[in-house]
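User: My collaborator sent over this chain with a note saying "see what the structure looks like." That's all I know about it. Can you take a look?
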Amino acid sequence: MESVNSRIGRLTAACLKAAVACCLLVIATFAPLPMVADSPARAGAESVKAVMTSIILRSAQWPDNAFKDGSSAFHLGIIGRNPPVKEFNAAFKGITISGRTVTVVSLKNPADIVGFQAVYFSETSEDVIVQTLALLAGRPVLSFGEHDALYRLGGVVNYRKVDGKLRFEFNRKSMERSGVKVSAQVIRLALPTKQPQEEAAE
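Assistant: Without extra context I'll predict from the sequence alone. Here is the result:
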Protein backbone atom coordinates (compact mmCIF):
# COMPACT_ATOMS: atom_id res chain seq x y z
CA MET A 1 0.00 0.00 0.00
CA GLU A 2 1.23 3.47 -0.85
CA SER A 3 2.38 5.39 2.21
CA VAL A 4 0.98 8.79 3.11
CA ASN A 5 4.37 10.44 2.52
CA SER A 6 4.70 8.84 -0.91
CA ARG A 7 1.21 9.98 -1.85
CA ILE A 8 1.92 13.53 -0.70
CA GLY A 9 5.19 13.56 -2.65
CA ARG A 10 3.47 12.35 -5.79
CA LEU A 11 0.70 14.93 -5.50
CA THR A 12 3.22 17.70 -4.83
CA ALA A 13 5.20 16.78 -7.95
CA ALA A 14 2.00 16.73 -10.02
CA CYS A 15 0.98 20.15 -8.70
CA LEU A 16 4.43 21.55 -9.49
CA LYS A 17 4.27 20.29 -13.08
CA ALA A 18 0.80 21.80 -13.48
CA ALA A 19 2.04 25.14 -12.15
CA VAL A 20 5.02 25.07 -14.52
CA ALA A 21 2.74 24.35 -17.47
CA CYS A 22 0.45 27.23 -16.49
CA CYS A 23 3.40 29.63 -16.29
CA LEU A 24 4.55 28.57 -19.75
CA LEU A 25 1.07 29.03 -21.17
CA VAL A 26 0.79 32.54 -19.73
CA ILE A 27 4.17 33.57 -21.17
CA ALA A 28 3.46 32.04 -24.57
CA THR A 29 0.03 33.67 -24.77
CA PHE A 30 0.60 37.13 -23.39
CA ALA A 31 4.30 38.00 -23.64
CA PRO A 32 4.84 39.96 -26.88
CA LEU A 33 8.20 39.62 -28.57
CA PRO A 34 10.09 42.78 -29.50
CA MET A 35 10.02 42.97 -33.27
CA VAL A 36 12.66 45.66 -33.84
CA ALA A 37 16.09 44.38 -34.76
CA ASP A 38 18.13 46.63 -32.47
CA SER A 39 20.19 45.39 -29.53
CA PRO A 40 17.73 46.15 -26.68
CA ALA A 41 14.92 44.48 -28.61
CA ARG A 42 17.02 41.39 -29.24
CA ALA A 43 17.92 41.21 -25.56
CA GLY A 44 14.22 41.34 -24.70
CA ALA A 45 13.40 38.53 -27.12
CA GLU A 46 16.24 36.38 -25.77
CA SER A 47 15.02 37.02 -22.22
CA VAL A 48 11.59 35.62 -23.11
CA LYS A 49 13.17 32.54 -24.68
CA ALA A 50 15.46 32.12 -21.67
CA VAL A 51 12.49 32.15 -19.29
CA MET A 52 10.54 29.68 -21.41
CA THR A 53 13.60 27.43 -21.61
CA SER A 54 13.94 27.48 -17.83
CA ILE A 55 10.27 26.55 -17.40
CA ILE A 56 10.50 23.63 -19.82
CA LEU A 57 13.69 22.37 -18.19
CA ARG A 58 12.15 22.57 -14.73
CA SER A 59 9.32 20.30 -15.90
CA ALA A 60 11.74 17.61 -17.12
CA GLN A 61 13.34 14.59 -15.48
CA TRP A 62 16.84 13.37 -16.32
CA PRO A 63 18.13 9.82 -15.92
CA ASP A 64 20.73 9.30 -13.18
CA ASN A 65 23.53 8.79 -15.71
CA ALA A 66 23.06 12.36 -17.00
CA PHE A 67 25.19 13.68 -14.16
CA LYS A 68 28.71 12.93 -13.01
CA ASP A 69 27.64 12.55 -9.38
CA GLY A 70 25.04 13.66 -6.87
CA SER A 71 26.63 17.05 -6.31
CA SER A 72 27.20 18.01 -9.96
CA ALA A 73 25.60 21.19 -11.25
CA PHE A 74 23.15 21.29 -14.15
CA HIS A 75 25.07 22.57 -17.17
CA LEU A 76 23.43 24.49 -20.02
CA GLY A 77 25.67 25.34 -22.97
CA ILE A 78 25.02 28.12 -25.46
CA ILE A 79 26.45 27.71 -28.96
CA GLY A 80 26.55 30.42 -31.61
CA ARG A 81 27.24 34.07 -32.22
CA ASN A 82 26.17 36.70 -29.69
CA PRO A 83 25.37 34.13 -26.97
CA PRO A 84 22.69 35.52 -24.61
CA VAL A 85 24.51 34.41 -21.46
CA LYS A 86 23.36 37.44 -19.45
CA GLU A 87 19.69 36.80 -20.25
CA PHE A 88 19.97 33.09 -19.43
CA ASN A 89 21.81 33.72 -16.17
CA ALA A 90 19.01 36.10 -15.17
CA ALA A 91 16.32 33.55 -16.08
CA PHE A 92 17.98 30.78 -14.09
CA LYS A 93 19.00 32.87 -11.09
CA GLY A 94 17.91 31.30 -7.82
CA ILE A 95 16.31 28.21 -9.36
CA THR A 96 17.37 24.57 -9.48
CA ILE A 97 16.78 21.81 -12.01
CA SER A 98 16.58 18.26 -10.71
CA GLY A 99 17.69 19.71 -7.38
CA ARG A 100 20.89 21.11 -8.87
CA THR A 101 22.18 24.63 -9.32
CA VAL A 102 22.40 25.79 -12.92
CA THR A 103 25.59 26.82 -14.71
CA VAL A 104 25.27 28.65 -18.05
CA VAL A 105 28.32 28.47 -20.31
CA SER A 106 29.07 29.95 -23.73
CA LEU A 107 30.80 27.32 -25.86
CA LYS A 108 33.03 28.02 -28.86
CA ASN A 109 33.45 24.40 -29.92
CA PRO A 110 30.42 22.09 -30.35
CA ALA A 111 32.52 19.17 -29.05
CA ASP A 112 32.60 20.84 -25.63
CA ILE A 113 28.87 20.20 -25.16
CA VAL A 114 29.52 16.57 -24.16
CA GLY A 115 28.74 16.25 -20.46
CA PHE A 116 26.12 19.03 -20.49
CA GLN A 117 22.40 18.46 -19.85
CA ALA A 118 20.97 21.12 -22.21
CA VAL A 119 22.09 23.17 -25.19
CA TYR A 120 20.72 26.40 -26.63
CA PHE A 121 21.57 27.37 -30.20
CA SER A 122 22.00 31.12 -30.59
CA GLU A 123 22.74 32.67 -33.99
CA THR A 124 24.45 29.78 -35.72
CA SER A 125 24.59 27.82 -38.96
CA GLU A 126 22.83 24.64 -39.94
CA ASP A 127 26.21 22.90 -40.19
CA VAL A 128 26.96 23.66 -36.53
CA ILE A 129 23.53 22.36 -35.51
CA VAL A 130 24.08 19.13 -37.46
CA GLN A 131 27.53 18.65 -35.92
CA THR A 132 26.31 19.30 -32.39
CA LEU A 133 23.22 17.09 -32.61
CA ALA A 134 25.37 14.27 -33.98
CA LEU A 135 27.57 14.52 -30.88
CA LEU A 136 24.48 14.44 -28.65
CA ALA A 137 22.80 11.45 -30.32
CA GLY A 138 21.51 9.09 -27.62
CA ARG A 139 22.73 11.33 -24.79
CA PRO A 140 20.43 12.75 -22.06
CA VAL A 141 20.48 16.31 -23.40
CA LEU A 142 17.64 18.62 -24.42
CA SER A 143 18.30 21.03 -27.29
CA PHE A 144 16.68 24.43 -27.77
CA GLY A 145 16.88 27.25 -30.28
CA GLU A 146 15.14 29.32 -32.92
CA HIS A 147 16.30 28.11 -36.32
CA ASP A 148 14.41 26.96 -39.40
CA ALA A 149 16.39 23.72 -39.51
CA LEU A 150 16.51 22.82 -35.81
CA TYR A 151 13.18 21.03 -35.55
CA ARG A 152 13.70 19.18 -38.83
CA LEU A 153 17.21 18.06 -37.88
CA GLY A 154 16.16 16.61 -34.53
CA GLY A 155 16.33 19.44 -32.03
CA VAL A 156 13.86 18.97 -29.19
CA VAL A 157 12.44 22.50 -28.83
CA ASN A 158 12.36 25.06 -31.63
CA TYR A 159 10.98 28.52 -30.88
CA ARG A 160 8.88 30.34 -33.46
CA LYS A 161 7.17 33.72 -33.64
CA VAL A 162 3.45 33.37 -34.25
CA ASP A 163 1.37 36.55 -34.42
CA GLY A 164 4.04 38.39 -32.49
CA LYS A 165 4.11 35.82 -29.67
CA LEU A 166 6.72 33.21 -28.86
CA ARG A 167 5.57 29.61 -29.38
CA PHE A 168 7.50 26.39 -29.69
CA GLU A 169 7.60 23.19 -31.72
CA PHE A 170 8.33 20.01 -29.79
CA ASN A 171 10.04 16.94 -31.26
CA ARG A 172 8.77 14.00 -29.19
CA LYS A 173 10.94 11.41 -30.92
CA SER A 174 14.11 13.35 -30.17
CA MET A 175 13.09 13.67 -26.53
CA GLU A 176 12.43 9.94 -26.28
CA ARG A 177 15.82 9.12 -27.79
CA SER A 178 17.52 11.36 -25.23
CA GLY A 179 16.02 9.50 -22.28
CA VAL A 180 14.85 12.80 -20.74
CA LYS A 181 11.16 13.08 -19.87
CA VAL A 182 9.37 16.42 -20.27
CA SER A 183 6.02 16.91 -18.59
CA ALA A 184 3.09 15.98 -20.84
CA GLN A 185 1.35 19.16 -19.68
CA VAL A 186 4.17 21.22 -21.18
CA ILE A 187 4.29 19.20 -24.40
CA ARG A 188 0.57 19.86 -24.94
CA LEU A 189 1.35 23.58 -25.17
CA ALA A 190 3.54 23.05 -28.24
CA LEU A 191 2.42 24.10 -31.71
CA PRO A 192 0.34 21.41 -33.46
CA THR A 193 2.92 20.39 -36.05
CA LYS A 194 3.78 17.09 -37.65
CA GLN A 195 6.78 15.31 -36.22
CA PRO A 196 9.75 15.36 -38.65
CA GLN A 197 9.67 11.56 -38.84
CA GLU A 198 6.01 11.65 -39.86
CA GLU A 199 6.75 14.19 -42.60
CA ALA A 200 9.57 12.01 -43.96
CA ALA A 201 7.25 9.01 -44.16
CA GLU A 202 4.76 10.77 -46.43
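A starting point for your reply to your collaborator: The longest strand covers residues 100-107.
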